[in-house]
């Protein structure tokens, strides 16, 4: 039982998924199922890439990093949300809230950077295959991975520390299912318009610049694919690229609508739906997309599932 004015005055209150909605319990149960599928799918994908020597390439190493980010991303949100709902305790401490803001921003930005590096990897593999092992060496691949994680962490640290320094007034109720920057800024006593403009500028750099680089890479890839004489090579290249483009669309689409759509702060319900897709559904869909569209991964997935079913 919570006691003391200090706890009541400093803790944030997460109002959860779509406050006031009927049958919220069913929705939370579905989210928990999605979380289980996401954990299983991404963990299996990481294990397969680690265990099979045929997948010890730059492309699959970067894919394993994407699955690792997705695991951390969804795990930074769903467990707390589900625990709050079933326990009836909707509070989160300022430290916990700050940590959630930091990790969600860091992982979101890291995923954007990683998807850009993955597009460049596919460009070099398809357009410059003879130079691929030289340009995309193991060291370069590791630098791409480290750069994604570090870049996301540094950008998030700046935003988190600055956003949380604003004084807050009134009840600390967040109309959200996790601690999100824009929801916290609404509680501030001071004018945060200048900072919000900075968020838009940062979002432009983090979202539009990578999208431009990704589209440029794939434009060059498709031009190269059209010149291929081998139908099998063309289909393989298109399958690999289409899976990555689908993931890019799922990741960048909601983020663009949330952070760069005019008046987005006035549509909290739509924002929650977009955040649900971006932070909960996408981590579940990513391994499924790569498994269905990639022959090597799909074949290994079916082999593992076949062995599991036979053992049962």
From TrEMBL:
Transmembrane portions of the chain: 26-51, 58-78, 98-120, 140-158, 205-226
Primary site of residence: membrane
Location of the G-protein coupled receptors family 1 profile domain: 41-290
Superkingdom in the source lineage: Eukaryota
SUPFAM superfamilies (UniProt xref): Family A G protein-coupled receptor-like
Record function comment: Putative odorant or sperm cell receptor.
PANTHER family (UniProt xref): OLFACTORY RECEPTOR (PTHR26453)
Protein name in the entry: Olfactory receptor
Gene: LOC102510662
